[in-house]
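Structure representation.

___
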Amino acid sequence: MNDSEKRRRELLEQTRELYNERRSIPAVHPRYGTAYRQLYEEDQPMASPGTFGLRVFLCLLLFAAFVAMDKNGSEVMKVDSSRIVEEITYDLDVAEVWKSL
């Protein structure tokens, strides 16, 4: 293989590398650019953690407080466990609330 063939092969490889769709983000509308970058980029930072664990912990904490109130028969700010159960089981008519707004 002479120098011109080597040079031609090198230019061909550069061209293939330049137009290879596997390594670049395809042409998309700018509105969807962020979504495609998340799909195609390998060096993206990890997603921020959600709040699911915090919400579960808070729910368990509130449930434990409710059980303790029920077991001990205590009140907090003039509210006891029977009042909490009453408010949870209250049948709210959404149509009436909507009309009052």
In short: The chain has five helices and no strands. Residues 52-72 form the longest helix (21 residues). The radius of gyration is 32 Å.
